[in-house]
Amino acid sequence: MALSKLNSLYRTLVAEHSRHPHHQGSLSGVEPIQLNNPTCGDVIQLFLVKDEGGRITDISFINSGCSISTASASMMTDVVIGKKEEEVLALAQDFSDLVKGLELSSTGQLGDAAFLSGVAQFPQRIKCATLAWNALKKALELKEMKGK
């Protein structure tokens, strides 16, 4: 695919997920994890439910942030629902590596989020793109601690 078509697809996907984010809102009875990006002011509250087997059964977010932050959170929620914690943590690492410009053997499991690889060209936007994923890792870590 030509570079201009990839750039166009990237802009289209980011715009679509930003304007119409998936899984946005709170989850009743679930305490959110809140993270912020002090560099630009993006804030996210992430709501996460997982079953006893460690599979994410529901996830949502409320945010105040830029289009990349919102799109990344929307894309992330699509990718992780139904996946086990170990898979999710591996995906979060892959995504982090991807937006830092590191080569991955495959990006297929990241879904639309793979198109955010272009963020690597703008280092100041990496924190925007990874905010939701970092909130996800923190939520899993805290839920694990509470479970012990």
TrEMBL record:
GO terms for biological process: iron-sulfur cluster assembly. It holds the Pfam family NifU_N. SUPFAM superfamilies: SufE/NifU (SSF82649). One of its GO terms (molecular function) is iron ion binding. Residues 10-128 form the NIF system FeS cluster assembly NifU N-terminal domain. It comes from the Bacteria. PANTHER family: IRON-SULFUR CLUSTER ASSEMBLY ENZYME NIFU HOMOLOG. Belongs to the NifU family. This is SUF system NifU family Fe-S cluster assembly protein. It comes from Streptococcus danieliae.
